Amino acid sequence: MRPVIERVIAPPQVTPPDLRGIPVGYLNGEDCIVNMAGDYRYMKLGYYGSQDLETTGHTVHPTCQEIMDAYVMPLFLEKAKAAGLPVPNFYISNGYFEPPVLVDTVNPFMSRHSLVYKATAQERIAKSLTRNFTYAVCCQEFPHRAKLSYFRAILGFSPVPRFRALASAVWNLYRIPVSRVRVIITHESEILLSGIQPLPFSRLSERELAYIRKAVTWRT
Prior knowledge:
The protein has about 220 residues and is an alpha+beta fold. It is about 25% helix and about 25% strand. The protein has helices at about 45-55, 65-70, 75-80, 120-130, 165-175, 205-215; strands at about 10-15, 25, 30-35, 60, 90-95, 100-105, 115, 135-140, 145-155, 180-185, 190-195, 215-220. The strands form three sheets. A five-stranded mixed sheet has the order 1-12-2-3-4. A four-stranded antiparallel sheet has the order 5-8-6-7, with helices on both faces. It has a three-stranded antiparallel sheet with strand order 9-10-11. Helix 2 (about 65-70) packs across helix 3. The longest helix is centred in the first third of the chain and has 11 residues, at about 45-55. The radius of gyration is 18 Å and the shape is globular. The chain starts with 11 loop residues before the first strand and ends with a strand. Residues about 5-15 have low confidence and may be disordered.
């Protein structure tokens, strides 16, 4: 059932409001509402939460457009590239790709990826991720001796100092309050932005929740 967010302006409280499971608050200093659901995938509760707040005239992040820009892989990479953030070379295909390559589905109803090292696996994985060569996939060239890594980004903050500058850049560009950010770290230690994944609010650590409590005022 879709959430209905009827009211967001009321006396502040210290714990997240239960708006059908979606934590929503005011971001101190930016005069906007933040949807802290963490999972904003298309047709999920977090997505509808932002949609309802937008349609009732509230300034909210993320907007539905910001969600699509962040969660649809080619849009995510193009936006990062246009902003000058480091990303791997990438292309779109509905069948052939050349390993080593990181392949993501583009269809908003699918959320899968595969890191392909061997040419012998190419056709089998292409058939699976494209649903028998029907839908497009986004292919990121994977540098030799690189590795895949992730960090958690909360309103531009990362608990890991190495990723804090990139966490801030991701927040300023995409306005996704809670996310798990995927990066490719090259053999030369360059960090390439590679994608954003859901990070549900219920899975945040106590340290991350403490950071949010300083930045957000919960209201019902």
